[in-house]
Amino acid sequence: MRKDLLKTVKRVVIKIGSRVLTDSAGALDIAVIGRICDEVAILRQQGLHVIIVSSGAIAAGRSELGLTAKPQTIPHKQAAAAVGQTRLMQAYETSLAPHNLKVAQVLLTSEDLGSRQRFLNARATLDALLGFGIIPIINENDTVVVDEIKFGDNDNLSALVTNVAEAHLLLILTDIEGFFSADPNTHPDALLIPLVKGITREVERAAGGSGSAVGTGGMATKVAAAKKAGKNGVATIMVSGKQSGIIVSALQGREVGTLFLPSTIGMNRRKHWIAYTLKPSGRIIVDDGARNALLKKGKSLLPSGVVRVEGRFERGACVRLCGLDDIEFARGLSDYSSSESIRLIGCKSVEIEGILGYHYGDVIIHRDNLVLL
Fold it and tell me: By C-alpha distance, which of 261, 263, 215, 262 is closest to 241?
């Protein structure tokens, strides 16, 4: 199965976690980076385009600043990232130079991908870099990012990058062999699961846990990344980045780590962007009739089905759609702002212009701008 799936892979995103790239003291492990770059060079020789989403900047900066623990305050994190990012890029550049490969630094925030125009610009930039044979090294722009515009972790960023770059595979390098039935650090009898056909609630519960002293993500964020990539029709392979030769082995289709199969019902890339890249600005609560029309009949959201509007948002913003039980079931781009939507609650489409004095359209959210979750 793996070999057949990997035959069509021409562009791969490799996400490398902090615990893979750092040693026991929290400093960059140059030997590991060198070994990973040697394997990336083999992939390039085989004609694959490679994009790296790399953690490690804050960890590298921490050691350079003489900090003995992970920085806790935002200014300290940003200072560590500013110092560490140059060290990180230097390590990649030095390690890839003997293979005549060059790197480019790409720093992103969620605002960069939240704008459709900037999202498409990012895609064009990556295409251009790959066309020149350059290996993009992507990281979150930790030197300026704040909680409101954070991706959350590089697992999430790597899943979004697969969509931006139109990649065919997401390869996650972590510090354990793959996805286990339980945390192998605390459950010695935990079993490695080589194949996950679908990410169910049971799989998500088994992922559990959070990060470490050097990373921000845990198994839960990696499974979430695989789920997001899968919704885009992209498979994910999770392996131990500490094992020599693991990248080449994974791309050759050998039974290493865990393979997460993509969803059989994928989203188009624009709807994937709406569902997973945009951050919702508010909520629209709808009645049961509207909920059923959206879920079962593929309809647009009419103002007559709106019960309540929460939060403040502008026209074109992404909003959550919830039923009367307050459970989110969809997301979409609103044709009207929150203040306009409030005025239109329960009205008929033909009444919109009379209420507002103008008319953008007959619906609050058009079905083409709506994603069922």
Answer: 215
